[in-house]
TrEMBL record, chains A, B:
<dbReference type="InterPro" id="IPR029061">
    <property type="entry name" value="THDP-binding"/>
</dbReference>
<dbReference type="InterPro" id="IPR009014">
    <property type="entry name" value="Transketo_C/PFOR_II"/>
</dbReference>
<keyword id="KW-0479">Metal-binding</keyword>
<comment type="subunit">
    <text>Homodimer.</text>
</comment>
<protein>
    <submittedName>
        <fullName>Transketolase</fullName>
    </submittedName>
</protein>
<dbReference type="GO" id="GO:0000287">
    <property type="term" value="F:magnesium ion binding"/>
</dbReference>
<dbReference type="Pfam" id="PF02780">
    <property type="entry name" value="Transketolase_C"/>
</dbReference>
<keyword id="KW-0786">Thiamine pyrophosphate</keyword>
<keyword id="KW-0808">Transferase</keyword>
<dbReference type="Pfam" id="PF00456">
    <property type="entry name" value="Transketolase_N"/>
</dbReference>
<feature type="domain" description="Transketolase-like pyrimidine-binding">
    <location>
        <begin position="301"/>
        <end position="464"/>
    </location>
</feature>
<dbReference type="GO" id="GO:0004802">
    <property type="term" value="F:transketolase activity"/>
</dbReference>
<dbReference type="InterPro" id="IPR020826">
    <property type="entry name" value="Transketolase_BS"/>
</dbReference>
<dbReference type="InterPro" id="IPR005475">
    <property type="entry name" value="Transketolase-like_Pyr-bd"/>
</dbReference>
<dbReference type="InterPro" id="IPR005474">
    <property type="entry name" value="Transketolase_N"/>
</dbReference>
<keyword id="KW-0460">Magnesium</keyword>
<dbReference type="InterPro" id="IPR051424">
    <property type="entry name" value="Transketolase-like"/>
</dbReference>
């Protein structure tokens, strides 16, 4: 058995070298350090039907060090999931074998390549295994030692220890050498182990090139009553003298691949029979019934509260819905879901990167996560959102406490860039309702949306204007008030201000149309084009920085339609301070008075 | 002495309660848990001339748990830096005492309020003290226990341990209760200490309400030969029975402040003489001389390489310039600075949040940090950039490997949202040069820019078009080619494509103007307005998602000027894959052929 594993490891090295040589780029030396670790995993520990990647009972393998993709693909070849021809098409245009793994090649759950993300995602998969699917699959993660510098790894380690995820095994490939130099810990494998143990993990230190020792380490990890780490001392480029443990050999093909392959004993064509898991059916929460919440027109309700009420009701009807929060559930009101469905609520504490990654892991198993925190704090997880798009993940995110309208807490708590950020996520949907009935309908719509959807909610109460039976849709908008002199386009808190401005203008005989643009992406092009054509001009007003938000979304929509119009843009231009919401809206020039003043400029000049 | 400290602590509690009561909001209970810790710090350990906040020899105090601002401001009052009247103006519009601390109130170095950021910034201050200023000031940080869940705290802990920052003391206020529930570790102070020790820290566990014990703990921390943590077991709301260690009391004023103040023994008016540091003059690196680099027109040079060369030369002339990188310095080419000025280069390993925070700390001490990583990975530090703007920090950031033009590595490594993100940072400057001579001049300009400036560089080589003696300026652009039929507006790699497209069009008798819009924010409005007025329309082409980048910047500039024009926008609309740069530019529809095709539509329709 050990001989086969050594041969398999040699094949994985050779195939890593061949793939990178064919591509003319890639990371063979980072692959070679972990080849023995992965050979033993494939042959004897992993339980994964490569021919049935959607089998819910499968183990999961996450390559947190995604740049070791040649090794990952060499494993797929050994397991019969890709051909040698496909392997040698690595990194070519159209190949499923991209520079870093993505879900385009099954059974890859998530894209990696931004370091420090694989282990956090694995925590989500492991949580899903224990608390949602209730299946005994194990989640294996290959981590690099360089990425142990990323805080997100420690968010994951911390949470896994706290949650007692005994179905999670991290394999840490301590090859000592980063991209440009030695890592902080070098080969101090005991140092890693000590840190992991302090966080409640079971850690085993091992020579990562001793296949018998690795086998025993995995067995020990499998038997642990807590998350386990196999901390493996390895050599980068192991097996080929010219690159073995040499600096300056990161991320490039070998100079002489033929000689290297010869040194490794030549090409092999071993096939490995990866063990199959026992059959298993994932648990599903039985759907119940709950009427979607509605509110009477004229009520005053915060949209963040409506989010919580709507999410709790949605959870009753749809057993696939789960919720996560970053320890602010009484602010975002996801606490209402937590109270109604405690078994499907995940408290992620103040660790937004982990929260996002865990949601990615859960959706990879078919669950529908809704994750919430303050809109401002979603910026903490920006790289994870970016990578979630590469993972083709379906996620529903809610960000509360939008803009200066939150008042006294000051700018650190104000989301003023969230629309810009979420609009610039590939395939995203961006929603910013102005009232409770809109919010409730949009929460329901989000459950069925592909890609990453973002709902921005308000701290303070706003008046319900949308009748409960009026259809609210992704890509829609609402004409709050008719008028043909000019149009005011708003969303969220500024709808109230726009309506008040229209009232002021009406007293002066100016008829302003007010458009509630609750769907920022996709945006309601037809309604905007009509407003541009039928009025003297548009005022777009938002509680957000001028860049990348509603204003630029409106401009982009009109440009795309090739419709030209005067568009004036009111947004937050100076750094806000603490104060009452009304003071801050006025100071930013986005309140009713400011809107009315801008309207007078448009009308005065053109009318 | 202990009696005075106990009285001072009582005053800090009372004043915290008074400030929150006056404001009607705030976090008195989170302040009360740390009052004894801060009383002992003020009286006996901190060496900070509150009357001379700019004294370079001062100790630094960072409130990482920024929501304990009532306590922070109560300390300022006790130290004579604010009056009681100002204290009671907490959170009112115009007050320097905002909901969370900002540098508007000296001697506050940085804004806090997004948890997990104060300790990373403190690492930057401590690095500045040891390696740059070479002064014996100590950096004290008050941390909350909830924020220990943030990975960024562990990035800081890890680096401080590695770097041996014996001038750093973290005081961890373990009051057990977060916003909605108990923290993961509760009162397991030994658990915190064990973790910290595993990362190379000296940790002291203490009863945070025993002023004698706290005094001894600080003395022990001061004497440690490594970074030290005082892990203090405390009670949230300590001293007032109705809130003491009670859940549900986070972030709200006390119901009956008068009774609470009475329970604490009433108001006091103690003044504390905070110790002064010994006089000290910060070290400054002597300026040398180095000619700014230039390249000949027609040379092929990657702008990332030009960045490195220019930065190294800048460092020679300006001793205040320092550089940081996230372990990719041979990709960003900051390695050239590291080689030339090793004493001013900081390897931050793969920990982008810490890198950004450390740069914030260094600029707070007057240094001029340039920090670099892949453009895509700046998204990892997005919340830190956001908060740096609230801190009014002057930072220079470089992001390499822009867009699909990087090729085979695939989408995880491609910056496609960075322009959107950095444009939406308050007060930011966003630059994306197309050639080496532009890059070099912009690097020099960045050194003198206030606020956060971002330079986007390319992986591949581009042809030098800008003569070395041509002035390149923030807010400028360059007309690469004259023409009045239509205008193509590009930046970075798409300038090459735009010029090639113009060549194709010229062969068909179409004269396309090509504008190299290397300054994306601020943008050259005059040049864009002229292009809109003098041609049939604009094509904006960028290697970036359609949202928030150059295209929307151009639309916003034209709208602001109230100039109407046909604008067609070519950008990356589908998720890219691996491939050769040229294949990916073509697939995204942003190469010369695609630009020429779009031009024909504009000309065909309008001409």
């Amino acid at each position: 058995m050990s001989d086969f594993r050594r041969e398999l490891a040699a094949q994985l090295r050779v195939d890593s070298i061949r793939a990178a040589a064919a591509a003319g780029s890639g990371h063979p030396t980072s692959s070679m350090s972990a080849a023995d670790l992965m050979a033993v995993l494939l042959d004897g520990h992993l339980r994964l039907r490569y021919d049935r990647p959607d089998d819910p009972a499968n183990d999961h393998l996450v390559f947190s060090k995604g740049h070791a993709s040649p090794l990952y693909y060499a494993m797929l070849k050994a397991a019969g999931a890709v051909s040698d021809d496909e392997l040698l098409g690595f990194r070519t245009f159209g190949s499923r074998l991209e520079g870093h793994p993505t879900p385009r090649i099954p059974p890859t759950d998530v894209a990696t390549g931004s370091l420090g993300q694989g282990l956090p995602v694995a925590v989500g998969l492991a949580l899903a295994g224990k608390r949602l699917d209730r299946l005994p699959y194990r989640v294996w993660v290959l981590c690099g030692d360089s990425e142990m510098a990323e805080g997100s790894m420690w968010e994951a380690i911390q949470h896994a220890g706290w949650a007692g995820l005994d179905n999670l095994v991290a394999i840490i490939d301590v090859n000592r050498l980063g991209q440009t130099r030695e890592t902080m810990l070098g080969w101090d494998v005991d140092g890693y182990a000590e840190r992991l143990r302090a966080f409640g993990w079971h850690a085993v230190v091992v020579d990562g090139h001793d296949v018998e020792a690795v086998d025993r380490a995995y067995a020990e990890a499998e038997g642990a009553d807590r998350p386990a780490a196999v901390v493996a001392r390895t050599e980068k480029g192991h097996g080929v003298a010219v690159v073995e443990d040499k600096p300056g050999k990161h991320g490039k093909p070998l100079d002489d691949p033929r000689a290297a392959i010869a040194e490794l004993g030549g090409e092999r064509d071993l096939a490995v029979s990866v063990a199959a898991p026992a059959d298993g059916t994932p648990y599903r929460f039985p759907p119940g019934s709950a009427d979607p919440p509605t509110w009477r027109v004229g009520e005053e309700v915060a949209t963040r509260k409506a989010y919580g009420v709507a999410l709790a009701a949605l959870g009753a009807r749809d057993g696939a819905v789960v919720a996560l929060d970053g320890e602010v559930s009484n602010s975002t009101h996801s606490e209402l879901f937590a109270e109604a469905h405690p078994e499907r609520y995940f408290e992620m504490f103040i660790a937004e990167q982990l929260m996002l990654a865990a949601a990615v892991g859960m959706q990879a198993r078919g669950w529908k996560p809704f994750a919430s925190t303050f809109g401002a704090f979603w910026s903490r997880a920006a790289d994870f959102v970016r990578m979630a798009a590469v993972s083709r993940a379906d996620l529903r995110l809610c960000g509360s406490h939008a803009g200066v309208s939150i008042g006294e807490d000051g700018p650190s708590q104000m989301a003023l860039e969230d629309l810009a950020f979420f609009r610039a996520v590939h395939g995203s949907t961006v929603l910013h309702p102005s009232d409770a009935n809109q919010t409730a309908q949009l929460v329901r719509a989000m459950a069925e949306l592909p890609g990453i959807s973002y709902l921005r909610t308000l701290r303070g109460a706003t008046k319900v204007r949308t009748p409960a039976d009026e259809h609210v849709r992704v890509g829609g908008s609402r004409v709050v008030r008719k008028g043909d002199d000019l149009a005011i386009v708003a969303c969220g808190i500024t709808v109230d201000e726009a309506d008040a401005a229209a009232e002021l203008l009406a007293a002066q005989g100016v008829r302003a149309r007010v458009v509630d643009c609750y769907s920022v992406k996709p945006i309601d092009v037809d309604t905007l084009v009509a407003a541009a054509r039928e009025t003297a001009g548009l005022i777009v007003v938002e509680d957000h920085w001028p860049q990348g938000g509603l204003g630029e979304a409106v401009l982009a929509a009109l440009a795309e339609a090739d419709v030209q119009a005067t568009v004036r843009h009111l947004a937050v231009r100076d750094m806000p301070v603490s104060g009452k919401p009304a003071e801050l809206l006025a100071a930013a020039g986005i309140d009713a008075e400011a809107i009315a003043a801008a309207a007078r400029v448009i009308i005065g000049r053109t009318g």
